[in-house]
Design goal:
Blueprint (H helix, E strand, L loop, with lengths): L3 H21 L3 H26 L3 H31 L13
């Protein structure tokens, strides 16, 4: 049996990669992928804790997070396609139309 610490370490590494990708990269597709990495790292830790504590609430919460991630990807990609059709730009520095 894999110890809980290994899952937490894997989750921390994946979350760190996601945060670094979100903070450094300017491509919107990479930013969306980084957000997905962060959400999936949270899912790994939730499932690990759920299994360790023998409680199903963590696994149920993972389904909600997967649903939110799927909606985020669909809406984000739709906005990205619309922006690319209108402006031919996918870098966050070049897109300034949504500023208030």
């Amino acid at each position: 049996m894999v110890p809980l610490e290994w899952y937490i370490a894997l989750s921390a590494v994946i979350f760190t990669i996601g945060v670094v990708g979100f903070m450094i990269r300017r491509n919107i597709i990479i930013v969306l992928m980084s957000i997905e990495l962060m959400l999936n790292s949270v899912n790994i830790s939730l499932v690990a804790f759920s299994h360790y504590l023998q409680d199903l609430r963590g696994q149920i919460l993972v389904f909600f997070i997967i649903t939110v991630a799927a909606a985020e990807a669909a809406i984000g990609l739709a906005i990205l396609v619309a922006l690319f059709k209108n402006r031919a730009a996918i870098h966050t520095d070049e897109i300034t139309e949504m500023r208030g």
